[in-house]
Amino acid sequence: MEHSIKLEKVTQYNQLKGVETQHPLISVFDNTNSKALPNNTRLHFNFYAIFLKAGHCGELKYGRNNYDYDDGTMVFVAPGQILEVSNTDNYKSTGLTLLFHPDFIKGTALAKNINQYSFFSYDSHEALHLSLKEQEIIKDLFSKLDYELSQSIDKHSKNIISNTIELLLNHCVRFYDRQFITRENINSDILSKFENWLNDYFESEKAQNTGLPSVGYFADLVHLSPNYFGDLIKKETGRSAQEHIQLKLINLAKERIFDTEKSVSQIAFELGFKYPQHFNRMFKKNTGFTPIEYRNLN
Question: Which residues form the HTH araC/xylS-type domain (predicted)?
Answer without folding.
Answer: 196-297
